[in-house]
Amino acid sequence: MTDVQLGMPQLPAPDYPAEVRARLEADAREVIARYPDSRSALLPLLHLVQSEEGHVTRTGVRFCAEMLGLTTAEVTAVATFYTMYRRGPSGDYQVGVCTNTLCAVMGGDAIFEALQRHLGVGNGETTEDGKITLEHIECNAACDYAPVVMVNWEFFDNQTVESATRMVDDLRAGRTVEPTRGAPLCTFKETARILAGFPDPRPGAVEAGGSAGPASLVGLRLAKGEAAPGRVVSPRSADYPSDEEAPAHPSSHDAPQRTSASDPHHPSGPVAEEGE
């Protein structure tokens, strides 16, 4: 007969150390004061506790609940709905490879598979040195730069297996890595604090742009009544418009991959028939 493990209810989560609690309470009150209804501050507060430990812990859930007058079940329901909130220890750099349709056929699948082999981790797993957490994500909203990789939500456009591998190696070695566009990189904890609504301390980060590419702007230009733009071509093409600067990392993946099943061990679709 197979033993049935009923388990015991978990004890209440431990609290933060007194000095950490005091510091987080001061930050939390600043965030809560921005909203007419305190519970509206839950999303930034989850980023705040994530900035403390690198993921949303049971202690962080308890803290948010106490600050907002919610139950831990209500906080957990939100924290587990949004994928930006990590549920377990994660690395200094979240490396997300887009494996949605366009990025997949332009090479995203090949990049993701290569990084899994190179780093020795699966989807959502972290390297032994605690530097990199690898995951595949659904659309980085940068299709005209496909295939795209994001590191702590900063863009690395037109990637190849080679450029993405070099990038994660540089991150692990502590070498400077600059996004294709947008603000300079910082650690995941620092990113979480910025997302909680606190000032970005990086020089020039606020002014750094992440504008859309030529293909994305065609419709906008036409809607504004501007003259029809010239033919929009791939940044990999030799006849890329002379007035546009081609991306620094052109991709060599022009041929569709045979499959878009990036990670068969972590399927994103239904795993059972409806009603089962």
From TrEMBL:
Its cofactor is [2Fe-2S] cluster. It comes from the Bacteria. Transmembrane segments: none annotated. InterPro entries: NuoE-like, NuoE_dom, NuoE_N, Thioredoxin-like_sf. Gene3D superfamilies: Glutaredoxin, NADH-quinone oxidoreductase subunit E. CDD domains: TRX_Fd_NuoE. Keywords: 2Fe-2S, Iron, Iron-sulfur, Metal-binding. The keyword Iron applies. Residues 225-276 are annotated as: Disordered. Belongs to the complex I 24 kDa subunit family. This is NADH-quinone oxidoreductase subunit NuoE.
